[in-house]
Design brief:
The chain has 248 residues and is an alpha+beta fold. Helices cover 30% and strands 28% of the residues.
Length: 248
């Protein structure tokens, strides 16, 4: 597994290989998007969902995020983005319903504040999470209710300067893992431990729910832009990472 976070503009002939995971960083704000064009890619139910957001900013972000998902998937599959159909499992994890592929194309998306991350891979489950690093959070209080005993113990060893990064390292790695597993919060957050200390490699350290899980899953911290924390969880260890910047 390569661990580079070199976010590049992709070549026009970009292809996704079987042993590679692609992660895209996508800005959700800004005037460069053709909103009418993006809306034309969406299904009526997607447009209706966008309209249910009260604030125009949220409607804009959701429309961009959903339309760009279609554009990226269509790029890999060489299809009209309007042809894509989606399904979801019992816990709400989205997947492609059409077309059926010999090698299934897995994807996951996360967005926070003004940024979205998308992850793609063939024939391996994955999950991605990004969080805007807000400072108005009661880190220790939230950790007591959401993190494992081990993770809380490590948090208490961090300096006040390292605490925010440690908290968001933990949060994004746990979210990426439960998204990759596709089980939602039916997989309790306190049933597994992740690394979190700043500078420590991202990893699943232990799981009470599945003791063999650390052998099956690999993690990667991501650094898409200042002010955000992000993480990727991928099935297996025999893969390489490529990071791309999406430009409208």
């Amino acid at each position: 597994m390569t661990t580079g976070n070199d976010w590049r503009v992709p070549p026009s002939d970009l292809a996704l290989m079987e042993d590679v995971v692609h992660v895209w960083s996508v800005p959700l704000a800004g005037p460069d998007y053709d909103m009418q064009g993006l809306q034309s890619l969406l299904e009526p139910d997607e447009l209706a969902r966008a309209q249910r957001f009260y604030f125009a900013r949220d409607r804009h972000h959701w429309t961009v995020a959903r339309a760009v998902l279609r554009l990226l998937l269509a790029r890999y599959l060489e299809l009209d983005p309007r042809r894509l159909r989606f399904s979801s499992n019992a816990y709400g994890k989205p997947a492609l319903a059409f077309p059926t592929l010999t090698l299934p194309l897995y994807f996951n998306i996360s967005h926070s504040h003004d940024l979205a991350l998308y992850a793609f891979a063939y024939a391996r489950e994955l999950g991605v999470d990004v969080e805007y690093m807000r400072s108005d959070i009661e880190y220790m209080s939230l950790a007591r209710h959401s993190f494992s005993a081990y993770e809380n113990q490590v948090l208490h060893t961090l300096s006040s300067a390292d605490l925010p990064q440690g908290f968001f390292n933990c949060w994004t790695r746990k979210e990426a893992y439960i998204k990759a597993r596709g089980m939602g919060l039916s997989l309790p957050l306190d049933q597994f431990d992740v690394s979190l200390a700043p500078g420590e490699p991202a990893a699943l350290l232990a799981s009470r729910e599945d003791p063999l899980a650390p052998q099956r899953w690999s993690f990667q911290s991501l650094d898409p832009t200042p002010g955000y924390a992000a993480a990727l969880a991928v099935a297996g260890h025999d893969w390489q990472l490529s990071c791309w910047r999406y430009e409208p």
